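Could you join me in thinking about how sequence relates to backbone shape in a protein? Would you write everything just below, so we can both look at the same thing?
***
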Amino acid sequence: MRVQANRAELHKKGLEFVVEQYDLGVPMFWQDIAPRTRSTNQQQIQFLQEGDFMMAPNVAEAGAIAADDIFHGHLKTITPVKRGLGFDISTEAEETDLFNRLGNIVPKIKHAFNKTKEQAAANRINNATSTASAYVNPDGKALAATDHPTDSSTDSNLITTAFSASALETMIQNMKLQKSHRGDPDPQMGPYVLFIHPSQEFLAERILFSQGQQGTANNDTNRLGKRVVKIVASPYFTSSTFWALRNADPRQQPFELLMRRGIKVKKDENINTDSWEYRLTEMYVFFENGWRGYYHSTGAG
């Protein structure tokens, strides 16, 4: 976008103030979605899922001991995405910018990059049931699926139950019953982070933080609030019915941010148009290293 000196209000006296229609200090939900960050200067990275050993079988006296192989997981290639945004301003506009609204433009552009990162992180959740190539899990399934393959069968991290206290109890139980690649118990003991749409945030707070059992007349102790340590109600979540849990331990959950480089700012003069050109770029990608430690509900039930 090129700004020229015809924005008269900014270049002469008489304007009392400029009303900002944005907030540069908004919270960063993406850090709560993807708590792990990796850095690379390579064009792309590959990672291999490492499986677990089988349970040790009985061995007869002088009998052979079985050898096992743990590298039977899935290979995934991750490529950072370059994002860019620019702003052009004429020399006349910069010289007569009495309110310094145009000369101090870089923080506003960086705010747009922050919003972009929020959207990119939330899209990992918004597309949790998608099998599009950009969102498919290393095992070839959607991040949230009912048939993640194991050595012995399949396992699920997807339900279609509306958010409630009893549904949350069920999901916590299911997290504890998740299976390893072998099909053995791989319990996700928590505590957990709750992802939910802002329209259900107050319901979540009532369920989690009421002293007694929420929605009943009895005096049972509320045990759910001790299991969920944080509610993430990002306005970038698109489904008003979905909800999900991830393990609060960054090492026991799948979401990561791969950074190639942070925001790079370039400013150059265009002598042909007598203007200044700002160009900002950033390279990163959000991805999942698996599905364990995450459980998703579409809330459609």
